[in-house]
Specification:
This is FtsK domain-containing protein. The structure is a single chain. 48% of the residues lie in helices and 16% in strands. It is α/β, with parallel strands linked by helices. A hairpin with a 4-residue loop joins strand 5 and strand 6. The protein is elongated and about 160 Å long. Bound molecules: adenosine-5'-triphosphate. Adenosine-5'-triphosphate binds next to helix 9 and strand 14.
């Protein structure tokens, strides 16, 4: 129905237009005939003259119209309309070539383009040239700049890998430091060569003392870098064999001895001669790869921790200030073997028990001033149980073959942290390099490789200090026991020998043991074959501290 209606109106239109066209043709023909008649021209000339005249008249009308428009455009209302029209045309036209040129003049072309391409700043943003300083340093180039308002230093940090790509270097070539004056300021170092291509000399004693915290090594610029404190912190170090873990931990122990003053060392040398240089100043030094030895040290420290917790509870109950404990470092070189088992049910149970007490040690002991440092050359999924790994506040990974292995040392979510550094990309030929992940930040560093003489001097000095502390201690049963053992030249004395020497006449061995324990205030030690007695190192440690 509707369609038929449309058809009817369409037919009527056609009729009307045809009639109009015929009428127009007749009139045009009539006008041309009149002109021809009036001027006495032939038909072709009449048509040409008429067409030419009409075109000329059209041109004249266009000129008059344009002139009239220009004249009206100077009027106030007209100006307003023109400005509005310009504004409405396009914002790009408003920013216009002139303004774009101005922006280009103030933008730092290289940094702007690098950061835009890396996605650290928006495409419409610039790094202003007058807010950039470029400094050539020994190891590379430092770009100090302000990111645009609305952006922060962290936007660059998050895209550091991409920034490295734009600069045509690797992530390992870049370090980014924030500033204290503004969240917008960033200091980007681009190294000339891969990190640590040239070695840095080991630091002097004075440099170590001046460092705020414990230095672990040099950063890529040669500055000392490490952790602000080891209080309430433990460290896990992973890395493939021969990458420099033992050298690194020797460097850290040496720096601790210089920077920390007094503390007790419990060393478990799973590689038998990695930590030997510190044996004579250690409270307990064992060279063993036997899980039972590891377990006995862990248990000893857990006992110490419990005693310290009791003292803390006591102080709180009596409204006394919290007791200050002498720091203890438990350092284990090559820890993975201690969590291995033969697959038997008994073996698995041993591993579970050892893992549980190690987890407790690392977790609980922080409050009681006992820090654990575990090193492993097998950072495999099952080498150090997850429940133990998760407790470490500081983590380090030296060269490993894959990103997956790096996650074992640094944490499963490490690569989602801010500006991670992939240890699998380190050059395995430059020994001692590692990624330190502490307080949410990653730092690439190279451990110190101290000369033997330097370490011996530091160790001798600590030993002298320890001896003097005991010698000057006021007379006490403890001091008497130490003097006795030193005179006899023994490191361990069984309870039945020591008790009478200290005036205990009790004939019942158990009672004599209890009395001696009370007198010395130091827990006894069960030596080989279950013989109970006291170690000189424990007595010396007790004489130097109130632990
Ligand atoms: N920071 C360093 N500077 C120079 N050389 C180093 C550095 N760290 C380690 N090395 C050298 O690398 C080699 C391996 O070092 P180290 O024994 O410390 O490695 P490791 O990882 O403990 O090895 P493994 O796990 O096989 O026992 C040694 O020859 C050592 O001198």
């Amino acid at each position: 129905m509707g369609k038929r209606k449309q058809q009817v109106s369409h037919d009527e239109d056609l009729y009307g237009q045809a009639a109009g066209a015929i009428g127009g043709l007749v009139i045009s023909f009539g006008i041309l005939a009149a002109i021809k008649d009036k001027l006495g021209l032939s038909w072709p000339v009449t048509v040409l003259v008429t067409a030419g005249s009409l075109v000329f008249l059209g041109y004249l009308a266009w000129r008059i119209r344009s002139a009239a428009r220009r004249w009206w455009g100077r009027e106030p209302g007209g100006a307003k309309t023109a400005a509005t029209a310009l504004q409405q045309e396009a914002p790009a036209a408003a920013a216009g070539p002139a303004e774009a040129a101005l922006e280009a003049a103030v933008a730092h072309p290289q940094l702007t383009s690098a950061l835009v391409t890396a996605g650290a700043i928006g495409r419409d943003q610039v790094i202003k040239a007058d807010e950039v300083t470029i400094e050539q340093v020994k190891t590379g180039t430092v770009y100090d700049f302000l990111v645009p308002p609305g952006r922060t230093y962290a936007d660059v940090e998050r895209r550091l890998g991409q920034v490295a790509g734009v600069f045509g270097v690797t992530r390992l070539h870049l370090t980014l430091a924030r500033s204290r004056d503004s969240e917008r300021r960033a200091r980007l170092l681009v190294l000339d060569e891969p990190p640590f291509t040239k070695p840095f000399p080991a630091p002097s004693r004075r440099e170590i003392e001046a460092f705020e915290g414990i230095p672990f090594g040099h950063d890529v610029t040669g500055q000392l870098t490490g952790v602000p404190t080891f209080e309430k912190a433990s460290l896990l170090v992973g890395g493939m064999t021969q990458m420099g873990k033992t050298t690194l931990i020797n460097g850290i122990i040496t720096c601790l001895l210089i920077a920390y003053g007094e503390f007790d060392l419990y060393l478990l040398d799973g590689k038998f001669c990695g930590l030997t240089r510190y044996a004579k100043i250690a409270t307990r030094y064992e060279a063993s790869d036997q899980p039972v030895v590891f377990e006995s040290m862990v248990n000893e420290l857990n006992d110490l921790s419990e005693r310290r917790y009791s003292k803390m509870q006591e102080a709180i109950k009596n409204r006394q200030p919290a007791p200050k404990f002498r720091p203890v470092f438990f350092i284990v070189d090559e820890a993975a073997d201690f969590f291995a088992n033969d697959g038997s049910n008994e073996g698995k149970e041993d591993t579970r028990r050892i893992a549980e007490s190690t987890r407790g040690l690392v977790a609980k002991c922080l409050e009681s001033g006992i820090s654990t440092v575990l090193l492993t050359q097998r950072p495999a999924q099952n080498a150090i149980p997850v429940m133990v790994r998760d407790q470490f506040l500081y983590r380090m990974c030296m060269y490993v073959a894959s990103e997956g292995t790096a996650k074992v040392a640094l944490g499963d979510t490490y690569f989602e942290t801010v500006a991670p550094i992939n240890p699998a990309l380190l050059n395995p030929d430059i020994k001692g390099q590692g990624v330190l992940f502490a307080n949410g930040r990653s730092t690439l560093l190279r451990g110190f490789n101290f000369k033997d003489e330097f370490v011996w001097d530091v160790v001798d000095e600590v030993q002298d200090r320890q001896q003097k502390a005991v010698e000057t201690a006021p007379p006490s049963p403890l001091k008497q026991a130490i003097d006795l053992m030193r005179d006899k030249g023994v490191e361990f004395m069984p309870t039945p020998d020591l008790a009478p020497a200290l005036g205990i006449t009790e004939s019942d061995p158990a009672e004599a043991g209890k009395k001696l324990n009370k007198l010395l205030g130091v827990p006894s030690y069960r030596a080989a074959k279950g013989v109970r007695g006291y170690r000189l190192a424990d007595l010396t440690t007790a004489a130097m501290s109130d632990s």
